[in-house]
Structure formats: C-alpha cells, structure tokens
User: What shape does this take?
Amino acid sequence: MAKYRLRWVVACIVAGLALVWPSSSFDGGLAYAESKAAKDNLHLLAQLVCGEARGEPYEGKVAVAAVILNRTLDKRFPDSVAGVVYETHAFESVSNGEIYRGTTDECYKAARAALGGWDPVNGAVFFFAPAKTSSAFIWSRPQIRTIGRHIFAR
Amino acid sequence: MSTQRGVVWPYLLLSVALLGALSFGWYQTRQKNQLALDAENKYMSSFHKLKWTSENMEERTAKLMATNDTRLQQSLLADLRVSSAQAVEEMSVLPFATLNTTGIESYLNTLQNRADELHDKLAQGGSLTTADWSQMADLRRQSVTFERELSSLLGLVGTNHIRWADTVRVTSPAQSGSAATPITQSVVQMEKALTPPPGATQTPGPTPGESLPAPKMSPGARVDATTAVKAIKAFVDLPLQGEPTFTGSSDPADKGRAFSLYFFSAKKANGTPLDFGVSIHGGHVIYMIDGRPVRDKRFTVSQLADKAAQMLRRWGYPEGRLISTAENDGTLILDFAPLETGVAVEPETIKVMLAMDNAELVGFDARNYWINRHPRTMGAPALSETDARQRVSPRLQLEASPALSLVVDRRRQERLVWAVRGRVDDQRFRVFIDARTGQEVDIQRIAGDPAPPMNEPRAGTGA
Assistant: This one.
C-alpha cells in the first residue's frame, strides 16, 4: 500500500513539474543586445546576419546585411536598422531568439562590408528560405538571385 | 514502529521537493507573464504613438489648408514630413507585417514625399500651385480617414477586452489560416477606407523594380557568360584556382529595366572564396567580394591609395580623385571619383577595398560608375576658389584647398560645387558650396571607419 502511495506522490510531482515548468527561460540577452545596438548599427546588423545566415557563404551574409540597409532607404520600412530588424514578424531569427545566439567574426565582417557600400543583391529588400516559406506574398516578389539557401527579391 | 518511521521520511522529502518545484514554477511563470505583459505594453505604446502621430497629421493638414503665410506653411509641411515618417516607424512595431497594408503605406509615403517636395519648393522661394493644393486636399481627406479609423480601433483596444497577443499569434508567418481578430478586421477596414478618391492622383508606394536605378547610358554590347569569365580573369590581381563558377544572373532578359548582372564564384590559389558580379551589357566586373580575415596592418594609407590608383588605370577607368578612405576591419576602403575636365564626378564614385596586410584587392564596387555615367556639360563655376573659402563658416578651419566636384543634392539634382575640407575642433567635414549660386548645398561629416569597433579609438581618414 505504501509503495502505491509513493508512486502516486512521485507521479503527482512529475505531473506538477510538467505543468508549471516554463516552456522557455529568458536569460536577459535582449536587453544586452539592445544596449549594444544603441551604440552602433554594426552590432545589431552582425547579430541579424548570424541569426539569419549562419552557415551561409560570406557573400550570403553580406547580402542579408545589404537587405537590411536597403530597407532603411525604402520608405515602406522604418528608417533605422533597429526599426527594420525589430519589425514584428519580419525576421524569424528575431522571433525565435536565434539572433542572440552568438556573433562570429565573419558576421561582423559581412556587416561592415554592407555598411561600407557592398550590395551583392542589387537593391533587394526581401529574402527567404524557399524550403521553409509558403507565404504567397513573398513568393510573388520579383526574384533577383539565389545565394546559398536564400532567395533574394525586391 | 521503525518500519513506519522508514516510510515517513520519503513522504517528507517528496513533500519538500513538491513545494520547492511548485514555488520555482510559480516564480518562473510569474516572470514569463511579466514578459508577456511587457510585450503587450510595447504594442500598446506603439499604437498610442501611432494614434498621436495620426492626430498630428490630421491637425497639420487642417491648418495647412487654412493658412496663407509661407513660413507657417513651411513649418507645417516640415511637421508632416516628420510625423508621416514616425507613423511608418510605429506601424512597423505593430503586428501588421503580414497584413496587406499597401493603401496605408501608400498614404504615408505620399504624404511624406509631397510634404518634402512642397517644403523644398517654398524654401526655394516658390509658392504652392492649385494642383498642389488639390493634392494636399486629397491627403487631408485621407488624414481624416486614417485618424478616424484609428480612433475606432482605440475604442476597441481601450475597453481592455482586446489584447495584442491574439493578433500577434494570428498574424505570425507560421499561421496559414485566415484567422482574424477585431484588430486585424479594423486594419482591413482602414485599408479599404484609405482608397484614394476617384480621379485623385496618388503616388503609389515604391513598386518592385522602380527603386533600382538603370544605367543612364549603355555599358556596352550584350556579352555571354564565357566573355564574363574572361573579364574576371583579366580583372583579378592574383591567379585563380580553376575557372570561375557561374552562380546565377539578375534580370538576364532586361525586364526589370535595372542593371542586369551575371554572378560568379571563384577561388584564389590559396583557396579563399571570391564572388563577382559582371554586367551582362559590356561584360564589366561591377563588384567583387572577398571575405578573407585581415589581421595585420603593414601598408600605409598613401601606399594603398597609390596601389588602388594603379589598379583603376589597369582596368581602364579614367583618372580619379581620392575623395575619402575608411579603415574597415584590417582593410582600407578607398573612394575614387572620376575626373572630368578637372571636376570630380562624385555620383560615379568607384570603391576599391585593399587588405592592409599585403595590399591585395579584397573588394571592388563600380556600380555607381556604370549606372550614373553619362555625357555632361559641366559649365564654368561662377564662384572663384577664394569666394568659396569666404562662404564657409568662420569656425571651419580649412585643411585643403577647395576643389571642384559634381555632387547630388538631397533632391537628387546634380550640382557643381566647391568641396571644402575642414575641421571644427576634432570633427572633420566636407562642405559643398554651389559653384554657381554660392549656396551651401550640403555638409558631410567625415566619420572615419563606417562601423568602428566598440571600445577602440576611431581610425582616421586620409585624403
């Protein structure tokens, strides 16, 4: 009898933990990132490049940074890098926190190249991974080119 | 008895563990809820700011229609320009990115563009025409509609029965259904209401392709990919490992009326990847990117400037004036403006990026040159160099003799100017004085590295 009670109590504890355990924890990365970004566009750009184009070729990283800068010049989008990056639902890596996972030297270099004026995607303001995207809107945009796993469009 | 005691201890331990787990879970859940509330507050704050800017736009357009004073008109137009830009910023925070808001975007863009144009017109001594007033009246009607629709939405949001979290969920790109909330329905309603009135001319928002400039004159005859590969081989200053690989093309059929390009990847002999863009018309290398990390600095700015000038000559570009340099992560970006009858044509600036460790070419961009190149009549400056010196601020300490340049002003008009380089305290500037009118056209701050590393001293600029 005592054995059954013990099992019941253990089962209750496990169930209780499963119910109340938070699905994700927040480590304060956002505030840290924002304070850095406020000082310089470079850091936020590099973070987004790593978040969106980790594992992509260098040119693909420069292209992602160029898209952000092209958006700041397009009146449909906010004027600032922070405004573009944090536009709600605009970037998956911002929505899922991938942007805060660590920034490599190559991402910084790519962000610097884009800030220096390099744009391998000829003025593109959209990019997407075809394998993951079913949005009719994004597929309707005129495509400029493909780099790695991303299609760039305007 | 001893058996009973042995049973009690595990129960006690498990109870303590349960209490600990519950309190930990309660704490974490409370934090999570706080974050959700913070997010709700962020959306609410942006919504109220958007509402406030819409009220400003409505009020300013109303006053604009009522005033006859040019200075007041200028002031109201300047406010409208700022408020419409602010509204775009606030809209971007709200979860509307996946909704069709082209009408709202078009209204805000048109208001911003027209306010800017009319403000400039008044600043140049002009006055508003009947057509201008007619368009402003249309924009005024749209401002009233926009403000009224936002007021209705405020009525919903202000009752505290609607939370933004639901709208964030249904507008997420991951959602594929046609789920709607009162907020999304309200935005759809606003979109319908903002349709321009019949007969009104409304500048649409930038449409695909329009924002990309096309070359002003043909860069040459159409070439195939094989010719483009030859152009790459003639361009690079080091031998390549194998043949460049074709990776795609942009607008090969010239449908977009922009700059059509072939794209190639290649490898240097040491295995470093390189990427190229070659114009389909003319077969010119338009850009090159090399992501090699550069650690050391062994070459000076003047040595690298000489090397870049030699390269430009070898590639067949006209003689240019070095107008700025910037250190960028161990590389040096050098901007050369081609000279035409002694005038530096800055809209055609060519960028050359050299590694500071071995002076190797690691980047090149001649897009501006091939897009903006066209025959020009420069004309003679009405203002002498001495006059230009006298026109600049007495606080500006000149660092070099004024030089003639062709620049593009913020209205996208090319103007012949005297470029005057100088400093105020530790800040360095290039001041552009119109060589015909003597008006100060623009001022450019020389910031050095476009993105300096944090906690490191800023690199200086040459030239």
In short: Chain A touches chain B through 70 residues (CB under 8 Å). Strands of chain A lie at 126-128, 143-147, 150-153. The CA atoms of residues 4 and 118 of chain A lie 70 Å apart.
